[in-house]
Specification:
There is one protein chain. This protein has 215 residues and is an alpha/beta fold. Helix content is 40%, strand content 17%. The strands form two sheets. Strands 3-4-5-6-7-8-9 form a seven-stranded parallel β-sheet, covered by helices on one side. Strands 1-2 form a two-stranded antiparallel sheet. Strand 8, helix 6 and strand 9 form a beta-alpha-beta unit. Helix 3 packs across helix 4. The protein is globular.
Length: 215
């Protein structure tokens, strides 16, 4: 599995398994199956309500904790609520630490929320911190009012929404651009796209493999 290096030196797998809309009762087995297929990055969130089952899968697997990369995302707003929420996420998951914690989306008190992530990072509760769904202005606001630069911005990115302007901004700021919905959001029918099929036939790959390699 190829890895990228975040701006604090932590390595993150280039390819991951997201657990959005996987019900809690199916999450543990889904994550275990993902591990068996070679995934090492698992993405959950407080909003998904399956952090506990992700943690159970980590413990039930044959993998050591340092062999997997676990991301979660906050759904809180402000310093105190975020601090409490992150401690609850650790308790629910049964993990000693997360590898990456993101602010799930911009809200009313992003600077205070970010400061709670900074505190968790400095306390060793997470190895890296970042943001999700933030634009360049919102990202710069955080950078200018914090002591720790975001390491990741997770934004919707796929063939029909390539985010080149934001990508160039993030590269300039040494922030990893992480895609969610890399195969589209279910409305574009990318897997049956004739151009992708043609490319796939040329190289003996599926349309999904072509999409992911391009990204």
């Amino acid at each position: 599995m190829k890895q990228l290096t975040l701006n604090n030196g932590v390595k993150i797998p280039i390819f991951g398994f997201g657990t959005y809309e996987i019900s809690p009762d199916q999450t543990k087995q889904a994550v275990l199956s993902a591990f068996e297929e070679g995934y090492r990055l698992i993405d959950t969130a407080q909003y998904y309500q399956n952090e506990q089952q992700v943690g159970e899968a980590v413990k039930a697997s044959s993998l050591n904790r340092d062999e997997v990369f676990i991301t979660t995302k906050t759904m809180t707003d402000g310093y105190e609520d975020t601090k409490i929420g992150l401690d609850e996420s650790l308790r629910r998951s049964g993990l000693d630490y997360f590898d990456l914690v993101l602010i799930h989306w911009p809200m009313g008190h992003d600077i205070d929320t970010w400061h709670a992530l900074e505190a968790a990072y400095k306390a060793g509760k997470t190895r890296a911190i970042g943001i999700s769904n933030f634009n360049s202005r919102q990202t710069l606001d955080l950078i200018h009012q914090s002591s720790v630069r975001p390491m990741v911005d997770q934004i919707e990115t796929h063939l029909l929404l390539q985010q080149w302007k934001m990508h160039e901004f993030l590269e300039k700021e040494s922030i990893v651009h992480e895609s969610y919905s890399p195969l589209g959001n279910g409305q574009q029918n990318l897997t049956s796209n004739p151009v992708l099929k043609e490319i796939g036939e040329k190289y003996g790959k599926s349309p999904i493999q072509v999409i992911l390699r391009y990204l």
